[in-house]
From TrEMBL:
Residues 1134-1235 form the TPPC8 C-terminal Ig-like domain. One of its GO terms (cellular component) is TRAPPIII protein complex. The lineage of its organism: Eukaryota, Metazoa, Ecdysozoa, Arthropoda, Hexapoda. InterPro entries: Ig_TPPC8_1st, Ig_TPPC8_C, TRAPP_III_complex_Trs85. Residues 687-864 form the TPPC8 first Ig-like domain. It comes from Allacma fusca. It comes from the Eukaryota. This is Trafficking protein particle complex subunit 8.
Amino acid sequence: MAKIDNLAKVLVHDTFRPRVAVLCSPSAQALCEKNNLQFTQLIQPFCSLTTDLSWQEPYGQYIAPRGLCIHPVDLSTWKPPDNDSQKNRRILGNIVGQSLPPFPGITEDPSDQVFQKLHLNGRSYNYSLQVPQLTPWFESWRETFLKFYSEQQQSQHEFLNQFVACVLVIAAYEIKSPEDVSNILGKLSKLQLQHQQEWSHTWFFPAATLKFYLILHDNANDNITNSEGCYQSLRTTYGGNFCYMLRINSAGLESDEEIVSDVWSPYIQKENQIRRDILNSETLTVFEDIEPVNVDEPFHPLSPASEYPPSIPPANGEFSANNNENFLIRGKCFTQKDMQNVQIAVNEFIGKSLLPYVERQAKVMHESILNRRGVSKSFFSATKRLFGTGAKTASSIVYALESPEMITRKLADLYFLFGHYDGAYQLYHQIKKDFQADAAWVYYASSIELAALSHFMMTQSDPPMAVTRSFPVHYINEAISHYNDLCRMPEAAHRCAIIFCECLKHMGNFGEAAAIFIRMTSEDCDLRSALMLEQAAYTFIKLNSPRKYALHSVLAGHRYAKAGLRSHSLNCYLQAFQIYGGRGWKFAEDHVQFTIARHQASLQIYKGLMERLLSLLKTPTLQSAAQIQMFYKEFISAAGKLFEVDRTPRENVIPNVRSSGIRIVIASTGLPTGEILNYQLDPDSVEVSHWDSLEEQVLKESIDPSVIMFRPSRLIFDARTDNTVHPNVPCNETFYVEIPFYNPLSTEVSLRRIALKFDDTEAVESSVVDSMTLQSEEIKTLRFGASSSVRGMISFDYVSYELELGSVCVPFVQKIILKGPRLNSTKEERSGIVYAKDLRNKINVVGKMPLLQAEVENLPPALYHSQCTDFNLVLTDKTSDTTQKLRVSRVVLASENMNSCLEIRPSVASGSTGDLVLESVQKNYCPFAVTFDGSSSIRIPCLYKVPPLGDVATLNMLILYEIKPENEDPVVFSAFGTVIYRVIKISIKIPLLTSLRFDHSFLKKADILTAINLLRIQNLSKGRTVVIEGITFDTDAITIEEKTWQSSSNKDYSTLTLEPAQSCNVIFRTKLATNNFQSTDNQDFILCVDWKILQEPLQDNSANVSGTTVKGFHRLNIQRADILCNRDQSPILFQLRHLSRNKHDFNRIPCFIFPVELEFNCQKSGRFIVKIENDLKRTIEPDTQSLHTASSQAVYFIGKTSWTINAEALRSEKLIYNVALTRPGIYNIAPTVSVKTPEDGIHQTFELHSPFIIDQE
């Protein structure tokens, strides 16, 4: 804050001035009005004493009242004070609103006259602040508040604002005879006496009021002789010290050089402003009585959302001064001599009349005090002085004006008004004890207040008086406490605080001043509390406390907003943001930023508004979703207002355009026409390298064998491709731009009319997305199609869209910033931050070229494992210009390992109007000779073989079509180089469904050329019936002689039908050819199982639609060593089925028992005795937790362990036994099986192995 020399002393002199009543005759008033002034206004700039005068106090000491200034009051316009506190608050609010504060960061201050630049050193940061040089709104409020308080004489506890004298003014030209003087002065004296009798408490000395007689002489019209005669007559009657003749001019000046400067307007404008505010106060809004508005927004402790209704206009600049007054010339007839005469008249009145009068009255009151000193009014009063007052309560004591206490107080006030601060301090200090003893707390508080103020003024006198005691700060706190708590006089407390805070700041006690400012805040008056908090904040700057300064600025701004003063609230929040901004206090920073933005939008201050609101949305925050939604609503509202001003879309980052995820897709990639097509290929994935190698193979083998340097066709450009070259697009061909949009907010964002903005809008046609909704933290990618009819370079740098919120739609643009990978090759690149060029958004439009579009027909949306399905690959000529001399001559369809997954059926190939001829079938590609006629299409029938495993199958097809000019003319394309072909890349991802499950095993036979095979088939399809049509091998080296399957529902051995979830065992005999038995070839055999799935009929409303049949085959790889079996191997086969793992609580139940199924298979029929044993020597696996080797006693076989079976050949028998486990671990629960044939006495033993894991629960 700017420093004013001894501001506290000036404030005390201006607040406590001797009041002088003025009564003017009509003629005298008319004479003054010739200069557009009233008499009190005329002498207002000259009320200060300009000469060295003194008066003698009762002890003989001479007092020089330096800085003495009287306060003239016109009794003819004076009226009783208005005690309507609400009305006064409205007036004070308007006074503050008239003075607009500057805004740091918004208000331009090139000359550094508005702001003072400060540097504060905090604990963690150093701060650079812009603080207003002056706070005129506070000074205006303080002056008006003290003026209102001085006129409200509700209590008789002080005499500082009473009239000490009366000046009677008459005009010389209205006096024609000595009797006229007596008549005019008699009338004025009568008016003064009436006022004194009616308002006796407004007069300092009602019984002996000083009267001073002043004659106005008009130099232009009056006769000086008559005026002198009248003046001498007054001197004779009333004495020379009580009369004076003032000579002024009331006629126009002869030359402009004699015109003096207007010194009256500053005083008059303040008076007129207050007068207008009083007249208009009945229609003003009561800012403090505003009820909060119910809004559907979350409450924030300092949120401005509910501080004032939006219908209340800001008070700033609401009431302007009367324009007519601005054109009045004050003192238009005055000369410099006249101004000197007025000053001399005031000095004469003070020096010859007022000060001697004060001297006499002081002696009289001093003698009266001496005569009554030591006499108590009553025994009760004396007792209270001796023993104290007890508990402090509100007192209703009122002293008589003639009481010693009031006479002492009056003398102390007289001393204080006329500069005798030492005597005033002694009397205040003396009388406060009497008031304290009588529990007269109003009088007591006022006395200690003035005692402290007298002490301060003694130290500020020139030269300073010697004081023995330090400044009594406790007097201030005690006075404020008594005013607030006991006397219920908040205005008196505020007057005390306002004055003494300036005194404390002048003495350097900023901490105590700030504490008093904060103490004076309350819920009663928002405006007053805002001013106090703001001053406290500025005081904390002097204490180098930036955080306290910011906190109290926020609190002040909050109270300003509640009072309806948004400009002042904005200033406070801007002051606080200088501390909170960028310091990591996210919640505080967000609140301050949001409030600043709301105030700027309300006040139509748009500088930096969008940046503030965007900072709330684009940076990471911990705010709740409701709070973010409120930020977003304010952002849309402010953007709409700003757009209405200049109709220019603003740049925005909500939602965020992920520039790194932008992809350019050339049309010849083959655009998706169905949901099953997926063209989102990752450039760094295996598929891309597969495309490149496949394209290189086809190019070198089928199109141009002379190619040495191969450069793959890039039809997709994204962040991981080489973007240092421009994408090339032929004229009138549509290319696509995929842009991901990310919503970082925790609220929903709706967009409308989303489009790309190209530099050449006339030549480029681009698509527009009507609408899109992004949920919280959602990413959506939009595809924009565009084409250019003119060759050359086109670029897109912006995305335009409208943000929609309710019924409000606001247009925005967002800049697309592309940069390549960071370079790290040279020293300069490693030491700096250098990025490669990224030219994805700069499209090179070249000449027209033929264009084919590929589509897939009749490919189901889902397929079964190992299914074979037919589909058509349709190639359509989409060339827009049929007159160009270029044509498609050959088409090459390529796919990896076409024989195993993709087969071409050229016998059924056809074209609508075009021709298709298959040239050959290679391992990975098939070339065709084609002829297109106009917009013709060609269908290539294909068979797709679905893999037997996996959840998703991927069908990749690369289509190259060779382009040749007509008549074999060479065509060179400057952009592409020598372009001879174009490519289409298709990647189809198809979800797979489960069909069948196959488990193959052998039942070996003694014959070395034959073997018994067991094939278990299970139908895994959901709700579908499967028919097994055949089981064959892929070679003649092995044949199937006979087969049998177990199926209760099917007795026909030619086909096998399996219902859903049904399984079946197929046993068949294989025989090897003799020559193959001796062969040394180690190639495995392939077992082929052909099947078909009967689809259930579909229901279409009430009509039945016939079902379809899906065919397929499975291929099982059988090792050759298994077929070439040993004749010594047994024809008996065992298989165990049980759980693989389980949990059990061994602490509660010490044993876990579960069943095991043992399946018995044999090649021949007969009677068998099967017995299972638990081999005690078998090693049991250690427990995974305890890592110890368990004993064999941990595994028991319970129940039946021996069976006699009458088995049929190639039929399975199921044997069930129970296993008991006594501790957790990993065990082999398979038994040792012994099989005995009673007919031939053969006994065989089989050791089986089957692990089982049991865990402790």
